[in-house]
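Troubleshooting log. The previous structure file for this entry was overwritten by mistake, so regenerating from the original sequence record. Sequence copied from the archived sheet and checked twice against the printout by T.R.
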Amino acid sequence: MPFRLGLTELTIILLIVIVLFGVGRLGKIGSELGRAMREFRAGINGAPEADSKSNH
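Regenerated output below.
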């Protein structure tokens, strides 16, 4: 049987994460995760790293 999460379980997990990390740090983690996903996709597609070099 596959592992499925309902709305109630996801809400509880979100509340625990907010309590542990705080809202401000959670936003930073989210933005870093988004940036990592973009860089991963660009690496898979063979895109040049010009965008990531301009941010430093």
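Residues 23-45 form the longest helix (23 residues). Archived copy saved in two places this time.
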